Amino acid sequence: MNSGFTHITVLLDEAVEALAVRADGCYLDGTFGRGGHSRLILQHLGPGGRLLGFDKDPQAIATGQALAAEDGRFVIVQRSFAELGSELESRGLAGKVSGVLLDLGVSSPQLDDPERGFSFMNDGPLDMRMDPSRGISAADFIATASAEEIARVFKEYGEERFAKRMANAVVQRRETQRFERTGDLAEVLKVANPAWEKGKNPATRAFQGLRIHVNNELGDLEAGLEAALEALEIGGRLVVISFHSLEDRIVKLFMRKLAKGEADKMPRDLPIRFQAFDPKIKILGKAQFASETETKANPRSRSAVMRVAEKLR
Ligand SMILES: C[S@@+](CC[C@H](N)C(=O)[O-])C[C@H]1O[C@@H](n2cnc3c(N)ncnc32)[C@H](O)[C@@H]1O
C-alpha cells in the first residue's frame, strides 16, 4: 500500500544520535510512520542488532512490512506503543531494550490524505483514526456524545476558548443532519467561532481536540512512557519528540518526577547527596528544537520538542 503521500522525518540525526545506538543493541521505534528514524537506526546497527517498530496505522504497517522483508533485523507490529510491555514480554525482551524512540502525533500522509478524515482543509470522510479498524470514528463521536463531552474535548485537547459555543452549534446541527465529512464539520465550527486567530483556520483547535480524543493520544502517551521505562535496560535511552504543549507537558513532568526520585518527599534543607534520593532516570541535556535550516525546509518541525533521558535503575 503506497498512498503517494510522503513524510519528512523531524529531528532525524538529533534523535538517532540521542539514542546512542550500540551495534548489537535492541531498539524500539514506537512510532514507525514511514520509517525515517528506523532506517537510520538500522544503519547504525550491526548484524547482531535488532529493531522493533510499532505503529497503529495500516499504511505505516505496509511500509514497515516491506522494510522487514528487506532487513531481517527489523520487525513491525501493528499495536499502540502503550502496549509495548506485553509485546516485549511475549518476545522475551522485557527489560532488555537499549533505546526507545517516540516521535509523537500524526504523520504528514495521515494529515494530507483527505480520505483519512483528519483534514479541515481538504474535504474527506470524518474519521481521524490512526487505525481505522479500532475504536470509534470522529463522525460517530460527534453523532453520539453530549454537548458537554464535545465541549470538553475541544477545550481540554484543543485548548479552544469557545469550546462550549462550538459544541452547541455542532449538537444543534446534528439534529437535522449527521456529520459525515470533515468539510461540513469545519464549516459549522467556522461559523460558531467568534474570534478567528490570524493565519489559523478557525476549526484548527477543535479538530486537534477531536483527533487527540479519537486516538486516545494523551492516555497512550502516559501508558507508553511508563511501559518504555520498564522496557529499557539500565543505561538505556528514552527519546521523545512532541508536537504540542499538552504532549510535551506530560513528557516533561514524567521525566522530572523520575529524575528527582524521592527528593520531593525529603525536607528541602536536609544535607543529603543527590544520589541518596535514588532517581530512576537521568535527564540528558535540555529540550532540543529543530534548527533554522530544518524549520525552513519543513515547517512542521517548528513545533517539535525533543527530550532525552537515560535509565539509571
Ligand atoms: C510523526 S509520525 C512518525 C514518523 C516517523 N518517525 C518517520 O520518520 O517516518 C507518528 C506515527 O506514529 C503513529 N502513532 C501515533 N500514536 C501511536 C501509538 N500510540 N502507537 C503506535 N503508533 C502511533 C502514527 O500512526 C504515525 O504513523
Q: How would you characterize this protein structure?
A:
With 313 residues, the protein is of the alpha/beta class. The protein has 2 domains: 193 residues, Rossmann fold (3-Layer(aba) Sandwich); 84 residues, DNA polymerase, domain 1. Helix content is 42%, strand content 14%. The chain contains 13 helices and 8 strands. Strands 1, 2, 3, 4, 5, 6, 7 and 8 form an 8-stranded mixed beta sheet that branches. Helix 1 packs across helix 2, helix 7 packs across helix 8 and helix 8 crosses helix 9. The longest helix is centred in the last third of the chain and has 16 residues. The chain is globular, with a radius of gyration of 21 Å. It starts with 11 loop residues before the first helix and ends with a strand. The relative contact order is 0.14. The mean pLDDT is 94. Bound molecules: S-adenosylmethionine. The site of S-adenosylmethionine has 23 residues, from helix 2 and strand 2.
